[in-house]
Structures are given as structure tokens and as C-alpha cells.
Amino acid sequence: MHFSIKNRLIALSAAGIMIAVIIGVVAELSLDTVGERTADIAVNGEGMRNQMEADMMHDALRGDVLAAELAGDAAASSAAIASARAHAERFRADLAANAKLGLSDEVDAALTAATVEMETYIDKALSMVEIAANDRAAALAEMDAFNERFRSLEQLMERLSDAIAASNESALAGAQRAQRVATSSMLVILLVAVAGLSVGALLLVRSVIRPLVAFENAMLDLAKGEGDLTKRMDASGKHEIACMASAFNQFMDKLHDVIARTRTSMDAVAQATNEMHAASDSISNSAQVQASSLEETAASLEQITGTIRQNADNARLANTLAGTARDVAEKGGAVVADAVAAMDEINASSKRISVIISTIDEIAFQTNLLALNAAVEAARAGEQGRGFAVVASEVRNLAQRAAGAAREIKGLIDDSLDKVGNGAALVNRSGQSLAEIVVAVKRVTDVVGEIAAASQEQSIGVEEVNRAVTQMDQVTQSNAAQTEELSATAGQLSDQAREVHELVGRFKLAGVVAATPSYVPTVSIMRAATPMRAAANRNVAATRTPALVSDDGFAEF
What we know:
Helices cover 87% and strands 0% of the residues. By secondary structure, it is mainly alpha-helical. The protein has two domains: 5-214, A middle domain of Talin 1 (Up-down Bundle); 242-554, Methyl-accepting chemotaxis protein (Helix Hairpins). Helix 2 runs antiparallel to helix 3. The radius of gyration is 63 Å and the shape is flat.
């Protein structure tokens, strides 16, 4: 029964995978065992820490009892009682924590006995510290019984510590034993796997290398045959190399057919390249004419763009001036408003002065009446009241003059009030006019702003059109340069087609006589490009397709 190389590799890989799976399973089982033992060690370690702390609480309670008996005052006794209670709670918590760890049966049994004795010991200790606070002699009398409880619990605690230590040592020994078993098992499996895989790899190499060496010799013979496409390889057998040799023979048959057809197609390619050369020449001339027209169009658009940009700048300046006028008008309106307010204040002050003058007029009137009454009384007095009558007459004259002056001032103030009212009305109308001017200026500003925005948008649009035309001009000039390059490339393609035909003619084909076809010579036309096209020509020339394989390189086929 013949196995293919693929099946052999699959079998060898499957064996390796199976061995790896076995090693993995053994390792997993061993690691599980070691993990369980490690977990037991960790639990026992925690139990040992709790046990050590419980031992300290055991001794601490005894210290609290002694401290209570030696306490010199109530504060020390209270401190001893509080410390004893705290140590008792910690003692209970440590043993309760060990009870929750799930230790071995021996540890649980010792823990149960120690817990029962611990409660008795704690009760005794708490009772002792409370008795010592009140009656030290009674506490000393109970000291022997307390020490007996202490020694009894100490023995149980030692037994519990020994049980935890023994459980920990057992878990450690189990972990070490599981590790040794895992190491030995994996080492044996690994040695067997290395031996088996080595033998399988050796057999696989021997069954594959020999056909490959034969295939290499056949390829070397073909490479030294100067392009002989009539040779074939031995394709006997059912393995992959035989299939590869058969596929190579089929490839050689197809290559033989392709080379034969290529030889007959070179003439058509040469004729097509000549026609493409002529067509690209015509396209190049048309592209040059179009490029010139686009250059003129771009120049005209540039002038239009400058004019529109200037209009936009003028519109922005007008918008700025209109905004300045609006600000000035608004400030004038504010000044008029202030003037109106000042006129109102003057009007109010004048009214207050008028009221004061009216008061003065009334005072003068009352003074006149008093002077008149005084004159009447002086007349009644006769000769004795003559001097008083003269004074009353003068007072009356002064009162009349003051009343006349007050009436004149009131008339002037009333006239001032009328004029101030008229002035306030005029100022109000001026404020309204300025407000209307501000509104009008705002409208003008808005219109000028819209004109400026429209001019800006028009300028942007024309600039975009100008850029588009410039890009079209550049693309057209680039196309003109590329058509010139295409014309040159067509000539080169014709020459390379002739070279390809000569190279194809070197292949040895069954039943075909090598012949040299006649080619129409082509002339490579390269016009002088404009300065803008020169860079494009250089770029195209730099990326031109390299020549086909030379005759010297073909010898290594």
C-alpha cells in the first residue's frame, strides 16, 4: 500500500499531536494533584497562624488576670477587664476561623475539645478579673483553680497545634510525591515520543528526498537545454512529486502552445503599435492647441477676479464707513437723550423755584397786612404811636416792593418754563430725528453688508472657476506631454515587440522552424515640450517600463 507524502506528514503530525495530548493530560492530572496538596498546605498554614494567635490570646488572658490582681486603682482594674474581654473575643474568633477552614478530622476533633475547654477558661478568666476589681483576696483564693484551667487548656492547645502541624506535613509530603510522579511520567513519555518521532521523521525524509533529487536533476537538465520545450519529466508513481512532474509536463505543453501563438502575434502587435504612434501624435497636436486656449481663458478670468476682488474690498470699506456713521448717529441720539433729561431737570427746578417765589409773595402779602394793622394801631395811639406808624409804613413799602419783585421773578420763571418746555420739545424731536437717522443708517449698513457679502461670494466663485480653469490648463498640458510620451512609448513598444519576437524565436518548439518576420521601422518623435510640460516629461521618462530580458539573462532560464 502506497502512502502519499501528505498522508505521511499527517500521520507524523497526528502522532506528535497525540503525544502532546498525552503529555498534557498527564501534566494536567499531576498539576491538579499538586494543586490540591498546595491548597491543603495553604489552609493548614492559615490554621497554624490562627492557632498561634489563639495561643497568644490564651497567655494574654492569664496576663489580664494577673494585671487585675495587681491593679492599684479602679482605672487599672477597668483597663484589665476591658483587655480581658477583647482578648477573649479574639480567642473565640481564632478558633472559630479554624473551624470554618475544613481541616482534617484529627484537627477538628482536637479543635472541638479545645473550644469546649476555651469557653470554660474564658468564663473563669472574666470572673477572676471582675472579682479582683472588688475583692483582691477572693481573687487570689481562686488563683489555683484558674491555673488548673490554664494548664488544662494549654495541653489541649498543644495537641491542636501538633494536629495542624501533622496535617500540614502530610499535605507537603503528598505534594512532593505527586510532583515526583508527574516528573517521572512526563520524562518517560517525552523519551518515547522523541524516539518515535525521530524514527518517523527519518523514514519520511528518506521517502521524500529521493524523488526530490530526481526532480532536481530533471530540472537542471531542462535548464541546460537552451530553452528546449520538448523535454518532459518522469511522472510515474502516485505520490505528490509524481503529480508535480505531471503538472510540470502539462505546463510545458501549454507553454509550448503559448510561445508558438506569441510568435505569430508579434507582427500584429508591431502593426498596432505603429498605428497607436500615429494616433498619439495627432492627439498631442490637438492637446497643444487646447492648452493654448485654456491659458488665454485663465488670463482673462484672472483679470475678472481682480476686478471683483476690488469691488468686494470697496463694498467692505463702504460697510465699515456705514457702520461708523451708525455708531456716530447712535452716540448723537444718546447725547440728545441726555439733553432731554437735563431739560426735564431744569424744568423741575424752575417749577420748584416758582413755588418758592409764590411762598415769598404770600409772605410779603402777610407782611403788608401786618404793617397795615400796625399803622392802624399807631393811628389810634395818636402822638405816641407816630414813630411806630413811620416804621410800619416803611415795612409796608418794603413788603409791597418784595411782592412786586416776587411777581416779576415769577413772571420771568414762568416765561423760562415755557421756553424750557419748547426747548425740550425741540430736543425730543431732534432725538426722534436722530433715531430715524440711526434706523436709516442701519438699513444702509445692512444693504452695504449684503452687497459686500455678495461681492465676496462672487469673488470666491470666480476664484474657484479660475482655479478650475487653471487645473484644466495644467491637466491639458500634462495630457499633451503624456501623449508625446505615449508616442515615444509606442515606438519603443514596437522595438520591444521585435525583441520579444527574437527572444521567442530562441525557444525550441516541436515541428516549428524559426523565421524572422519583417517589421516596419518606427521613428520615435519627441517634440520640444513647453516649460510647464518639461517636469511631466521627466517624470514619465523616469517611470518608463524597463527593457525586456536580454539575451545574456535568457541563458539562465
